[in-house]
Amino acid sequence: QKKSKKSSETLTFKRPEGMHREVYALLYSDKKDAPPLLPSDTTQGYRTVKAKLGSKKVRPWKWMPFTNPARKDGAMFYHWRRAAEEGKDYPFARFNKTVQVPVYSEQEYQMYLHDDAWTKAETDHLFDLARRFDLRFVVIHDRYDHQQFKKRSVEDLKERYYHICAKLANIRAAPGTDLKIPVFDAGHERRRKEQLERLYNRTPEQVAEEEYLIQELRKIETRKKEREKRTQDLQKLITAADTTTEQRRAERKAPKKKLPQKKETEKPAVPETAGIKFPDFKSAGVTLRSQRMKLPSSVGQKKIKALEQMLMELGVDLNPMPTEEIVQMFNELRSDLVLLYELKQAFANCEYELQMLRHRYEALAKAGSIGPLSVEGAHPDGQTGLGIEEGKGDTKDQIIDVVGAPLTPNSVRRKV
């Protein structure tokens, strides 16, 4: 017996060579059961349960009469039904939901609901149709007796009905209760239907014109956003130039006044877009000073070529001796030159946009849509300033919105 127990405990299944562990885990469970030979049929999962046919007797069905409580004419119908359900109500009668239309008395009508434009007989006729057709006012308007009574529109019928409902709710409500009184605006409904009718009666030319105007509006909004973005970039460049100048002055005055060592904390923050931002080599290890003179990858090839040309014009060596002071001064010089280059580009773009606006304004003035130009004064460089008479501010804004995004002067030269 001891030997048999030991042999049963030491019985193990080894994974065949070449079989993955996941495949082997699918074959055997934790209890080391053998895999099934045939697929097992379980009731769990997403399978639909089949009907279980037993040997019991079938429940009897009977052809029996029934009445529908939703009908008021007492009509008798027949259908097959289980014998055990004989005498019960028709099950689909519970789906017959009706709208509760309020009922008013003669005294209430004379005291609260009287209207010179409506008679009591016409009001009773309206509420009778509302009960019959469950407040389907289009059907009510179709079945309305326009020969006996005044011709009314659907909005007039709705306004009269909901006005009476609101009056009765206020009269019959207990004091201190919060009421949700239905309100119907007949004027708004008429304007809505009139607008909808105009929308459907548009011609194809009007639809095309409206789509064209919508596209032009989107273009104007896009140009406006681009102009605002260019203005912000220009303001950043101007702020960076002023900040750099103040920083240079503070550094020059620092040795004379012997300021404490708080330069890094007291330095004004320079925007990242100003000049060149050289990487800081603060990691451990030996580094070359020439690496600090290498331009970062954020500077484009166009700026690099312009920077080299400006350095050559100033007579500065492109690869100076990398001492500590020369590296710092060389980097500051290149950063200032890049900032100067960006300011020149922004100034050229503004000049070109001003010329485009001037030509556009002159063309509109010749067409007679706006007034002529008025000269306010002359600039030192000989250019005349543009002025607009008082009351023309809106026109100027419209002109600026219509003008497209100007091309750069370089692109104009290439085209020429």
Automatic annotation (TrEMBL):
Q: Carries keyword Nuclease? A: no
Q: Which residues form the DNA methyltransferase 1-associated domain?
A: 209-367
Q: What keywords would UniProt list here? A: Chromatin regulator, Methyltransferase, Nucleus, Transcription, Transcription regulation, Transferase
Q: Which domain of life is it from?
A: Eukaryota
List the residue ranges forming a coiled coil, or say none. Answer: none
An example GO biological process term is:
methylation
Say yes or no: keyword Nucleus present.
yes
Q: Which Gene Ontology cellular component terms are annotated?
A: NuA4 histone acetyltransferase complex; Swr1 complex
Which stretches make up the DAMP1 SANT/Myb-like domain?
90-168
Compositionally biased intervals (Basic and acidic residues): 224-233
| Location within or outside the cell | Nucleus
One Pfam family named in its UniProt record = SANT_DAMP1_like
User: Any stretches that span the bilayer, and where are they?
Assistant: none
Protein's recorded name: DNA methyltransferase 1-associated protein 1
Q: What is the originating organism of this protein?
A: Corvus brachyrhynchos
